[in-house]
Amino acid sequence: MRHVAFCLLLLAAPAFAEEAENPSGRELMSEALQLFMQGLMTEVEPAMEGLSELLDNIDGYHRPEILPNGDIIIRRKRADDPISDEIEI
C-alpha cells in the first residue's frame, strides 16, 4: 500500500510543480492587491504623520468662528488669553 501511495505522489509531483510555476488568477490578483496596498501605505504614511501632528496640536486653538460675511476664523490660544472655549448650557 505504501508503494502505491508513493507512486501516486511521484505521478502527481509534476502537476504540483506546474501549478506553482503558473499561478492561478486568484493568486495573481492577491499578489497584485498586496503590492498595491504596500505602495499606497508608502505614499500615505507621510500625510498620516502630518495629520497625527496636527491632531496632537489641536488643543492650541480656539473653536472656529464664522463671521456674518462667511469668513471662518481659527484663533491660536495664548497663555494670557481670557477667551474661554467652555460651552454654556
What does the model show?
- By secondary structure, the chain is mainly alpha-helical.
- The chain has a domain at 42-78.
- Helix content is 58%, strand content 4%.
- The protein has two helices and two strands.
- The chain has helices spanning 2-21, 25-56, and strands at 65-66, 72-73.
- Strands 1-2 form a two-stranded antiparallel sheet.
- The protein is elongated.
- The model has no long low-confidence stretch (mean pLDDT 75).
Uncertain segments are: none
Measured by DSSP, the beta-strand proportion falls in: under 5%
Biggest sheet: strand arrangement:
1-2
Order of helices and strands: HHEE
Largest sheet entry: 2 strands, antiparallel
Helical proportion, percent range? 55-70%
> What integer is the average pLDDT?
75
Number of helices: 2
Radius of gyration: 31 Å
Oligomer: single chain
What's the arrangement of secondary structure elements?
Blueprint: H1 2-21, H2 25-56, E1 65-66, E2 72-73
Antiparallel strand pairs: 1-2
Keywords summarizing the entry:
89 residues, mainly alpha, two-stranded antiparallel ribbon, 2 helices
Summarize the structure.
The chain has 89 residues and is mostly helical. Helices cover 58% and strands 4% of the residues.
